[in-house]
Write the structure tokens for this entry.
Amino acid sequence: MNTSEIIIAGDTAGIEWRLPVLRFKGSDPKAPKVYIQAALHANELPGTALVHFLCERLRQSENAGQIKSDIIVVPHANPIGAAQSHFGELQGRFDLGSRTNFNREFPLISVKDRDGLLEGLENRSAIDKLKRQLLHMALGCDLVIDLHCDDESLQYAYIDEAFWPEAADLASAMDMEAVLLSDGESSAFEEAVGFAWKYETPEKQSRLPRKLSVTVELRGRRDVYPEMAKKDADGLWKFLASRGAIDAAVSLPAFDGPAVPLDNIEIVRAPEAGTVLFHHNIGEWVGEGDVLATLITRPGMADGSLEIRAPQAGLIVTRSSERLVRRRADLMKIACKTASKATRKPGTLED
């Protein structure tokens, strides 16, 4: 394993950021090149824990001469966000300087223009430098895994329809409980990678065989435990072996969880501010009209609460960890068999 650092100059005097990058050299130039990163949202740490144990397994594979692919691992992809603490709480989702989501506004280019990402970096902001260098590394690979987590959630993934159903092997290897299928048209990291591949030719490609760019949601932010991380690392190692990146025989069962388009996700929001009393947990199936939560809006008053009901039947994939919420706050996401009738912006589910 080779270790290096990318140094990113800050936007004020005396500041710089260091981004460790780990590389494993493969023995087969025809094997798919792999890029794995964690904690692009700096306070989402299940992926960093996974990567720690994955690298342990990869070093064992390296010593056994089993690594066929060039593999790049970025254990914590956002040193800028990791330094953002506001009143003692890490703020890793948005850049406090620009108010931009760290996982949005990646350049949408053709893979043919990859080298242009690094031109004129000295004139760009620190966050733009970071994003361009992450994307540049990823676009040199064939399998791109972006490790995130949700608030409280099942293990699931966002997968572009251009990679499905081939990517069911990843869902199986990592024991995912759901897959959300997207059209890949946002500026999030994994979709920017897919965009670059789709527009490599003048005519947009709708299928991308032998490629994969995916966001894996490793349950909730507090699900950072040694046995859980080791299990996830073993799952990702098995996926890499199944794709020929590691010379090892593995057998994966068929993925039998739900795979639903983003249009079929019901985002349950709070109609008013108040205290949330949930009636159902993540992983539970609910029917249309079931009471999902009681919202106490005026404590102590006879008419001081209201019920929030399921708009249709489905599987609760995520749930908010907050119990005091503002009006329109997201409470749950439910994967359903039919499209939601709610009005919302197309594409990704959050900003």
The first strand starts at residue 2 and ends at 9. The CA atoms of residues 158 and 180 lie 5 Å apart.
